[in-house]
Amino acid sequence: MIMKTIPSTPLILKRAGLGLLALCAAVLTGCGGGGGEGAGLTVGFAQAGAESAWRRAETASIKDEAGKRGVNLRFSDAQGKQENQIAAVRDFIAQGVDAIILAPIVETGWDDVLGEAKDAGIPVVLVDRGVDVGDDSIYATLIASDFVAEGKMAGEWLFKKSGGKARIIELEGTPGAAPAIDRKKGFDDVIGQHAGMEIIASQSGDFNIEKGKEVMEALLAKHAGEVTVVYAHNDDMALGAIQALEAAGKKPGEEVIVISIDGGKAALTALVEGKMNCVVECLPLLGPNAFDAVETIRAGGTLPKWQKVDDQLFDADNTDAAFAENRPY
Ligand code: AHR
Q1: Which among 33, 34, 182, 269 has most CB atoms closer than 10 A?
Q2: What atom in ligand 1 is closest to the CA of residue 129?
Q3: Confidence bin at 9 (pLDDT 50/70/90)
Q4: Which of 39, 36, 40 is nearest to 27 (CA)?
Q5: If you take atom 4 of ligand 1, which residue's CA is the nearest one?
Q6: Considering the domain boundaries, does residue 321 fall inside one?
Q7: Global pTM value
Q8: In which domain, by residue range, is 128 found?
């Protein structure tokens, strides 16, 4: 698969800080003024839902960027249901939009509807999650993090931190979603290599805080005496697990190591407060990249099949209160 790498937050922010030069570039490419190449385009954005702070930040990024570029954005929130999302894509096709941005809730089940978009000559830009399809020419490009690598980063950090001894509760994301499948794979592969590390329970918390808390409460009822680590596939479930641990009289971050993925402000604040121990980043601010892709396709350019977003890891050694406070999502 051909890949291009999109830098992680600090680099993006550094670039954002280039001042006049960046401002001129933005005006020239239409990124800042609403009058550039995207102006007048109609783009449909089929979002998966609003289950997490991460996803709400992704939606805001795409809406903001559409506004900046003068794109007429049609937005649909599938509320966590693939059938709603498929119906939204079909609606966009029927409306004859210029392009579709899709954040697919699960990996499978997209062949037919994306084939219909291709037949109608409407390019599809996938953001954040990949799809498992027979013919990858039915979408133009995927802009997303490497979720297997994120899980692996979390596992390797834990191995070093724990000295290879851990009894782990894993809170998985939405069943069938690319980040749930891949973050489990990356993490479990590392844990499987070390005899002293064991996943004692693994269950879905559906990427949201309430379910994360509820599942953690149920798992603590069985495993409170032995759990030493919680690995959550996103920040929201980790924050829910912290609430459950505290309610059970345990000190998250001290008696139980807590690891999450996303790197939003609430998780980094919990890290600074000592309630979380490791946060792997996954960037949701994909609006600029998504509309760059749409404009490149419209201009007849080609794109790599996967534009990989680079992520980094945060722990007590590299994160302070000011950094958490200024986190943009
Ligand atoms: O696909 C990205 C994941 O989906 C984020 O980690 C999670 O927070 C979101 O709901």
Answers
A1: 182
A2: 1
A3: low
A4: 36
A5: 55
A6: no
A7: 0.91
A8: 3-143+284-310
